[in-house]
Design a protein that fits this description.
15 helices
């Protein structure tokens, strides 16, 4: 750890070793082993080891990140000595160690009380430091000795609609117990499916199948016996070949139990099941279903995910607005391929339980979606096909937008959306609201109890004054319950609104839309 910097390994230079040379900033050449001896007083013992290659991003290069560079036409390439490098992050053994992870969480996931104590100590250190105080005075700034006390509001619990029963989302916004006992709104029978696993995971995979057949019927989901594919090894090619050879038009679902979590194998399976031979798929880590005491709850959540992927409907909420379309927009940046993918989803039924989805590819690093008009027009047509009418109200949730791009979203993306209305009729002018959703924020909301104790606010807590932005129509909403650490609120900024919603109606609309998301109770889709 000679420079305490972190590098991502992109490649291995098998044709290079520490005896090779690279160009210094002054144009002279020096061997890697001589550079480390001179610069850090480190002696390299293995002179034949290959070098690790890091290709830094442009923004890192502009910050002046310096390290030995290969003497080639690729001036951006940074070569590292394996002998002098060490792995970062947590190993699989550490992650599976409950006690170790609990000790780590005590430092990384501060409780509200510990967070307040740490902040107060930090502020006190600044105020007691003469140099720091002088710097604040030179800027005309003053730091408050304590956190800001404000008054927020609490939304009432939403009514969750199942097939034959309705329940109220409690203080923790959790209705999983009721969901496991009652039928889903629309349950799709799983009659023809395939499960693939290695010999190592045979017992766990078969136990998972039995448990799925046990927990499915109480939720209204019939599960037949699957086609079992036991693989001879865990190579990616073996998984892909076995799945491809057994795929037929009648197969509803492909379940893959992989022995270890590997991105390349996961990507290859998803490419086969999403692009080459489209079929719903579920990839499960073998360790996830290896714990017998948790198998039932895990299988129940997987069953909910599978039903979503098969086109089923889990639950719904009471949304009083009629002919409403809810749209979600986000952009994913693929760093490995240097391109961006825009994702677009839109509700197509009155209960917002069925969705139309579409993607479009963009230039590298591009955040704003140029293909928005195409996606939006197609979603309106789909809504008309389902309901025989166009939506009267449209609410767009836009994720992944920084503060500096708010005006661009308002002036550029909103204009694209409005142009789409003319495609259907010059008189078609629905009410529309465009809301930017910001999740990666530093603001934290804490609830004061008994005058001095701090706790996480309950789901549905709202703050729409004092800490909001000047000139913006924005608010903070806590939409989830956490058992560890401090809850992070979501920041909503309404950049455009001609629907004449009162602020209270706009805020109340956000929580039902969040609770209607299928991953909230059944976990992230795999």
């Amino acid at each position: 750890r000679y420079n305490n910097r972190t590098y991502r390994i992109d490649d291995i230079a098998w044709d290079m070793n520490p005896q090779c040379t690279f160009k210094c900033h002054d144009g002279s050449e020096i061997r890697f082993m001589d550079y480390y001896q001179k610069q850090y007083n480190l002696t390299i013992r293995d002179t034949e080891q290959p070098l690790l290659v890091n290709k830094p991003k442009k923004r890192l290069r502009t910050r002046g990140q310096q390290a030995p560079q290969a003497a080639s036409e690729e001036a951006e390439k940074i070569c590292l000595i394996p002998e002098l490098s060490c792995m970062t992050g947590l190993t699989d053994d550490t992650r599976s160690d409950f006690r170790a992870m609990k000790d780590i969480a005590a430092h990384t996931r501060l409780t509200p009380g510990d967070r307040v104590t740490a902040l107060r100590k930090f502020v006190e250190r600044i105020r007691s430091c003469k140099e720091a105080q002088a710097e604040f005075d030179s800027w005309g700034l003053m730091i408050d000795p304590d956190i800001l006390n404000v008054t927020g509001r609490q939304l009432k619990g939403e009514l969750i609609l199942l097939k034959s029963k309705s329940v109220v989302a409690g203080a923790e916004a959790d209705w999983s117990r009721e969901l496991m006992k009652e039928h889903m709104i629309t349950a799709v029978p799983l009659q023809s499916w395939v499960i693939a696993f290695t010999k190592k995971d045979q017992r766990n995979a078969l136990e998972f199948v039995k448990m799925l057949q046990k927990v499915g019927p109480p939720m209204g989901m019939e599960v037949k016996e699957p086609m079992v594919l036991e693989l001879k090894d865990d190579r990616t090619e073996t998984f892909i070949r076995s799945i491809r050879d057994n795929l037929t038009p009648a197969v509803q679902l492909v379940v893959v139990v992989q022995p270890t979590s590997r991105d390349d194998r996961y990507s290859a399976i998803k490419k086969l099941c999403c692009v080459e031979s489209p079929v719903p798929s579920q990839v499960i880590n073998g360790r996830t279903i290896a714990q017998s005491q948790k198998l039932r709850s895990i299988t129940q959540k997987i069953a909910l995910q599978v039903n979503c992927k098969l086109g089923g409907e889990l639950w719904a909420l009471e949304i009083p607005l009629k002919n409403l379309m809810v749209i979600g927009i986000d952009v994913y940046h693929d760093k490995s391929k240097g391109r961006s993918v825009g994702g677009f989803v839109a509700s197509v039924n009155t209960s917002s339980t069925r969705w139309y989805s579409r993607v479009c590819f963009q230039l590298p690093g591009q955040e704003l979606m140029d293909g928005l008009c195409t996606c939006f027009t197609a979603s309106l047509r789909k809504y008309h096909d389902v309901n025989n009418c166009l939506p009267d109200r449209i609410v767009v949730f836009r994720d992944g937008v920084g503060d500096g791009q708010m005006k661009i979203v308002e002036e550029y993306e909103v204009e694209q959306l409005q142009k789409c209305f003319l495609t259907f009729s010059p008189d078609y002018k629905p009410k529309m609201s465009v809301v930017v959703v910001q999740k990666r924020i530093n603001t934290r909301l804490l609830q004061v109890q008994n005058g001095s104790q701090f706790d996480n606010p309950a789901p549905g807590a709202i703050l729409d004054h004092t800490v909001t932005r000047v000139g913006w129509y924005d608010f903070f909403l806590v939409s989830q319950h956490v058992r560890q650490g401090t809850v992070s609120p979501t920041h909503y900024v309404v950049v455009y609104d001609n629907s004449n919603f009162k602020p209270d109606y706009m805020q109340r609309l956000k929580l039902p839309v969040i609770l209607d998301h299928g991953s909230l109770t059944c976990g992230p889709l795999g």
